[in-house]
Amino acid sequence: MAKPNADDIHQAILAARELSDDESAQGTLARCFLYLHDRNLQLEDVYEHVENYLNSGMAEQEHARLLMTLEHAREADQDREHADRGESLGL
User: Fold this and answer.
1) CA distance 16 to 30
2) Cys-Cys crosslink for 49: which of 7, 11, 34, 66, Cβ 3.0 to 4.6 Å?
3) Mean pLDDT for each 10-residue chunk of the chain (91 residues)?
4) Are 36 and 60 in contact (CB under 8 A)?
């Protein structure tokens, strides 16, 4: 499967946002697409920091950045889980 270009992704995001409130199968697909797109962006950030860490000879500063990126991704997952259950984090 060919990688979509930036314009294709942008158009898909716009269409998914319009459909995401719909309770149909298309709305479900739109919500899944938006979730996976957001998750992919976070994982690309993790991937970049892993590469930097490994290419730097595993430098301490890069290790700290990698840990912060991983923690950010974990927190985003927890926020999504709480939002899905209608829970507030109370912060």
Assistant:
1) 4
2) 66
3) 94 96 95 95 93 89 92 88 68 46
4) no
On whether the CB atoms of residues 37 and 13 are closer than 8 A, the answer is yes
The torsion of the CA quartet 41, 47, 69, 65, rounded to 10 degrees, works out to -140
- Specify the pLDDT at position 58: 84
How buried is residue 24: exposed, middle or buried, by Cβ count under 10 Å (0-12/13-18/19+)?
Answer: exposed
3-state secondary structure of 4: coil
CB 20 within 8 A of CB 31: yes
